[in-house]
Design the sequence.
């Protein structure tokens, strides 16, 4: 089966998605967009990319930001280690006084792995690289009916196949065309839109009606469930928060104090009295859930109206109006409604 690169790129020119980072694909714009797009859909990234570019129009301006400022803009995008890596990478690049051009040099930058390095090389610098993501794996495995279940081997097969197909064409357009084909036509869930596909005549899965068998499905791991009791200490127009550790899940973000188990209201009352915390009432708030890639949080929140600012927990009192505007807080805790 042959891969018609010329007709494929004609399809891309006519049907490509209009995306802000494509309008001016400088190394910085590609770097910023690719860091945001890691494990995140384009439609969710779009408003964040625009906000970031407005706040930090250059790599130097981003490098001068603080992690707290970057996290505030990143709120809601998830996978917060990317925000930290983005900032650390920007600081490293700013010190170099020029954006690294080679894959080897890009891989030395915090948060840039094989995929992101190849994407920057291909899209920003027009180098002959193939950035293999889920879209490209899906297009390749269906086109070739590749039954390989080992993801690393499947990626390697896809990269070799598309590199061979990439002759004198622009690597930037070629990579983005493959991304668009996977996103718009060779869909991940349900039947692909084969009637609109410029590659259907050479596609083995289309010929044999086996599209839904590729790529081979991998078994999903069950998320670990974590029960927690979330404590919203409130004193007049202030609320108590603390900063998470600088490493690990939701690093450097702010949260409400919490206990890693579900507490009944009566049990919580007893604990607070033992700790010497003066309170006028405890209100049960609506329970919430939040799913991460590997963990499911089941949160039982309580609002505790305190009679003093003295609390035996690490953290600080802040004005309610500053919550989420001056102190970056993950979406999990934003789900909790302070007012019952």
Sequence:
């Amino acid at each position: 089966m042959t891969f018609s690169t010329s007709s494929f790129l004609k399809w891309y020119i006519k049907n490509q998605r209009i995306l802000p980072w494509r309008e001016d694909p400088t190394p910085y714009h590609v770097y910023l967009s690719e860091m945001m797009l890691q494990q995140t859909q384009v439609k969710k990234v779009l408003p964040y990319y625009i906000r970031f570019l407005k706040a930090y129009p250059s790599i130097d301006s981003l490098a001068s930001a603080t992690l707290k400022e970057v996290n505030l803009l990143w709120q809601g995008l998830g996978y917060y280690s990317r925000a930290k890596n983005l900032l650390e990478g920007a600081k490293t690049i700013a010190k170099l006084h020029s954006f690294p051009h080679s894959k080897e040099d890009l891989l030395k930058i915090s948060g840039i792995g094989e995929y992101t390095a190849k994407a920057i090389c291909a899209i920003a610098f027009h180098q002959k690289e193939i950035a293999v993501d889920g879209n490209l794996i899906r297009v390749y495995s269906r086109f070739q009916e590749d039954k390989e279940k080992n993801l690393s081997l499947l990626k390697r097969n896809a990269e070799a196949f598309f590199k061979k197909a990439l002759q004198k064409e622009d690597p930037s357009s070629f990579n983005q065309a493959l991304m668009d084909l996977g996103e718009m036509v060779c869909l991940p869930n349900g039947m692909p839109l084969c009637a609109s596909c410029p590659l259907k005549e050479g596609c083995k899965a289309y010929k044999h009606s086996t599209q839904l068998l590729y790529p081979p499905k991998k078994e999903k791991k069950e998320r670990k469930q974590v029960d927690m009791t979330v404590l919203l200490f409130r004193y007049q127009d202030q609320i108590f928060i603390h900063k998470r550790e600088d490493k690990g899940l939701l690093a450097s973000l702010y949260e409400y104090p919490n206990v890693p188990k579900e507490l009944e209201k009566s049990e919580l009352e007893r604990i607070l009295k033992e700790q010497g915390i003066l309170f006028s009432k405890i209100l049960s708030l609506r329970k919430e859930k939040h799913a991460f890639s590997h963990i499911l949080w089941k949160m039982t929140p309580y609002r505790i109206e305190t009679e003093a600012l003295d609390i035996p927990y690490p953290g600080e009192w802040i004005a309610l109006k500053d919550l989420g505007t001056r102190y970056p807080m993950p979406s999990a805790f934003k789900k909790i409604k302070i007012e019952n």
